[in-house]
Amino acid sequence: MRKAACLYVKYVDAFNGGLGRIMMWGIFVMAGILLWSSISKTFFNPSLWTLEIAQFAMVAYYVLGGPYSIQMGANVRMDLFYADWPPKKKAWFDAFTVLLLMFYIGVLLHGALNSTAYSLGYFGKEPLVFYWDLIMAFVTGGPSAATEVMGYIERSPTAWRPYLWPVKVVMLLGFFLMLLQAVSELFKDIARIQGETI
Fold first, then answer.
1. For residue 91, which of 17, 37, 82, 148 sits 20 to 30 Å off, Cα-Cα?
2. What is the mean pLDDT of residues 127-135?
């Protein structure tokens, strides 16, 4: 089990670390979008897409950078008492709080699964069945068969009216990666409790 946990931590931390370092550049993407928004409003006709694209970029920046933030311990922490505790007590406390984090991320992941299915035109109560049908239709019949499984594709109610499923898929992926990183942190905490490091 220890070898499997070490491999899990190694690969999850490496993937989330690489993705997090890439997502750090997202701040410049958002700045560029908002700069173009200011320029277009001042000198040209205002662009309809800038506000929503900036919001979508912010979602990607925040949600896909979240696992790296968890990994680096960069999340907000009130360490009024925590800072003076011995390492083993910190590990016990961290293991308990990461279980609460995993529950919270599980709730977010459940909501993201339902919301993404809704944005792809599914209005039922079994989104996993919908995803399975969508994947099987794509594998057996290609994109046109997958399109037949989907219903009315959700769009934003603004003047630009972009499709919402891409940003919801990004949120779904980000929550899943956060859950994987939380499990990695739990393995590290358990190892510290046992006096080892992973």
1. 17
2. 91
